[in-house]
Design brief:
The protein has 417 residues and is α/β, with parallel strands linked by helices. It has two domains: 337 residues, 4-Layer Sandwich (Purple Acid Phosphatase, chain A, domain 2), CATH 3.60.21.10; 61 residues, no CATH class. 33% of the residues lie in helices and 24% in strands. The protein contains twelve helices and 18 strands. Strand 8 and strand 9 form a beta hairpin. It starts with 5 loop residues before the first strand and ends in a 16-residue tail after the last helix.
Length: 417
């Protein structure tokens, strides 16, 4: 039986979590229990992109400037994990979207990263050559790739980390719905039944089992309700910690009665929201605010979970979110985590219509203008009733948003409270 942790969601002084953290920075203590034996400290962050404005800053100021403010903290812990949301394909596709510099892995290594999740929708942006190069660069930098390998068997392998006698196992996959070549390097495409089986089969081999999944809908505060059910099934099967990413905003944290944890989306850590064929100026503040999740692991599971707020400046440098801004990030995270304890389906559907429909239509319009009928037909093939409901909600919201005075005579006024 796992030892249960006290769920507090209390704002505390960050320096009480790690001595390397600056004074005057707040942290959110999510849960804590007395450690049992030796412990391992893990920092986990969300989406990392080293292209776009981040690359311009790196060229101008040096690549270490992007993470300079948080590097000391990363070097004070045992494991630093993140989701690499860009292939190292600068030589293959110079100047192209999401093609990061070939030296990007070294930049992340110097900052303290030692595990990078690769199974996501951008890793194969430039085909097998881009994936191969990314894998090679990550390994050459001494960083462990998660969710991708030289073949599909390697991509699905349990990654072992043994520190101070605490045996930690990692599994990583991503829902991309993209085709992959049968030969050569592969990444693990998410399949719930397959992942559930792997968790059940491999749980006994480690003290702590972590599962990283690239999944979810973008810009929404909440996970899909069926994704929450999926995470709960994985935790029942033996996953101690689930780390999700892809939404580009922080989502809530769930703690089970026996101390297992799911972070439904880790948000953006270092990412240029302006990059891409279609810009999505949706909930911009939330897209540029993130967090470093600090976990203390022991042989019984998770002894503590704490969140340190961060934000991304105009040059795509990661900054500590101090003062009021930091506390607002932590209060938002607390609120949406509390919402997960009840029925959040209505709030999810409302935000899905408001925040997903417009960007989806923009992407479709972009491909339509280019005559990319293959993409259009594949998108239509995947259309379900839920998408028509989402569109209907969005249309209704557009009509409701029409200013009340649009039909008034010129010169008339409307009083707003």
């Amino acid at each position: 039986m796992k030892a249960s942790a006290d769920r507090s969601f209390a704002i505390v002084e960050a320096s009480s979590v790690l001595k390397s953290l600056p004074e005057g920075l707040s942290a959110l203590r999510i849960c804590q229990r007395p450690p049992q034996g030796p412990t391992v400290k893990l920092c986990a962050v969300g989406d990392i992109g080293l292209s776009g404005r981040a690359e311009k800053t790196a060229q101008r100021e040096g690549s270490d400037s992007l993470l300079a403010e948080v590097t000391e903290t990363f070097k004070a812990v045992d494991i630093v994990f993140g989701n690499l949301e860009c292939p190292f394909a600068g030589d293959i596709a110079p100047g192209k979207n999401f093609a990061a510099s070939m030296t990007g892995a070294e930049t992340l290594r110097r900052a303290g990263f030692n595990i990078l999740h690769l199974a996501n929708n951008h890793v194969s942006e430039y085909g097998q050559a881009g994936l191969t190069t990314t894998l090679n660069r990550v390994r050459e930098a001494g960083i462990t790739p998660l969710g991708a390998g030289d073949d599909l068997v390697a991509a699905k392998q349990l990654v072992h980390t043994n520190i101070r006698g605490v045996r930690i196992g990692w599994l990583g996959c991503g829902r991309t719905l993209l085709p992959q070549d049968e030969m050569g390097p592969r990444y693990w495409e998410f399949d719930e039944e397959e992942l559930h089986g792997a968790v059940s089969r491999l749980r006994s081999q480690v003290d702590v089992l972590l599962v990283s999944i690239h999944i979810g809908l973008m810009y929404i505060d909440y996970p899909r309700p069926d994704h929450k059910h999926m995470a709960e099934r994985l935790m029942e099967a033996g996953a101690d910690l689930i780390l999700m990413h892809h939404a580009h905003v922080l989502q809530g944290v769930q703690i089970t009665s026996d101390g297992r944890v799911c972070c439904y989306n880790l948000g953006n850590f270092l990412y240029d929201w302006e990059e891409g064929d279609v810009q999505t100026p949706m909930v911009l503040r939330e897209q540029n605010e993130g967090a470093i999740f600090v976990f203390e692991l022991d042989r019984a599971g998770l002894a503590s979970v704490t969140t340190i707020p961060t934000w991304i400046d105009a040059g795509c440098r990661v900054r500590w979110a101090r003062g009021r801004r930091g506390e607002e990030i932590l209060r938002r995270l607390t609120r949406i985590s509390r919402d997960l304890e009840g029925d959040f389906a209505a709030a999810f559907e409302r935000q899905r219509a408001e925040r997903n429909t417009g960007p989806t239509l923009q992407v479709l319009a972009f491909h339509l203008k280019r005559g990319d009928w293959r993409y259009i037909l594949e998108s239509l093939r995947r259309t379900r009733l839920e998408h028509f409901k989402m569109l209907g909600r969005w249309i209704l919201s557009v009509f409701k948003a029409v200013p009340e005075n649009i039909h008034r005579e010129p010169g008339s006024t409307t009083r707003r409270s």
